[in-house]
Amino acid sequence: MNVLSLFDGISCGQIALNRAGIEYENYFSSEIDDYAIKVTQNNYPKTIQVGDVTKLKGHFFPQIDLLIGGSPCQGFSFAGKQLNFEDHRSKLFFEYVRILQEVNPKYFLLENVLMKKEYQDIISSYLGVKPIQINSSLVSAQYRRRLYWTNIPNVEQPEDKKIFIKDILQHNISGLKLSFDENGIYKGIANNGKSIILESDVTPPYSIYESRTEIAKAARRESMKLHGIDTNPRGPNYKEYRINKKNKCNCILTTRTELDNIVDNQYNYRPLTIIEAERLQTVPDNYTNYASDNQRWKMLGNGWTVDVIAHIFSYLI
Questions:
Q1: Is the pLDDT assigned to residue 199 strictly greater than 50?
Q2: 144 & 75 share domain
Q3: Per-residue pLDDT tens for 45-71?
Q4: Is 177 a domain residue?
Q5: Are residues 131 and 18 in the same domain?
Q6: Active-site annotation, residues
Q7: What is the tally of structural domains in the chain?
Q8: Do 156 and 8 have their domain in common?
Q9: pTM for the whole thing?
Q10: Torsion angle of the four alpha carbons 285, 289, 295, 296, in this order, in degrees rounded to the nearest 10
């Protein structure tokens, strides 16, 4: 089988094929980011890099059996400005459509973010199929809803593996320890035995529950500062701290400033480590260990949740 992956990134599609037990002869990767290419080639040296998607022609390739890709989503995302198809990045969707028509594969898969129904319907009209929405929380500790357009038959929702944040944490990672007395009243906060002063507006009120909530917020701020992470990357309207629901991490984004802090059962507040971010995307530990930390965050944020893709590919068998 020959596979062509557009906007391949760190080749999460290739990890998924292997995890699903799908054998392939050639894997062609269209990617222009040097860091992502380095990660891919170090993990899969036989990958055939073919460069910029806008310069590809269908006749460059042998018969392609599977075309996959996740065209840039910034123009569609509810988190962005929603410029839709006028955004120069989201226009790359039409490159996917062009290549799809030129190589005429037996199967295809396109991934993208949740978007307005009108944009979704336009994509569906070009591809001839409606998307299936899958939340990565079913196969990982990350809450990440995405749309998948595919002609792979009979794809259904994956079973819930019941993986939670606690299941992906690394042990013995330093953070901020919260201390409470026997009555549950906050006593202090420390890092490596040294006291850290909380902001002056954080004063434990009479309610123990409210006290823990305010202290937790302060601990997250101090923890992010301690690790050199900007605590206000988007201005005054940015929701600085997002609450994890049902013990799942919020969606991994492309910059480290936007990642959630986490807490273990010892009230240890700290940011996610890179390996934990890899685990949230169900990427092997240290898979991205060929670039700087900032580049690794970016590549993981742009990547796929591998086990979702492996689940979809399992229907090829």
A1: no
A2: yes
A3: 999 999 999 999 999 999 999 999 998
A4: yes
A5: yes
A6: 73
A7: 2
A8: yes
A9: 0.82
A10: 0
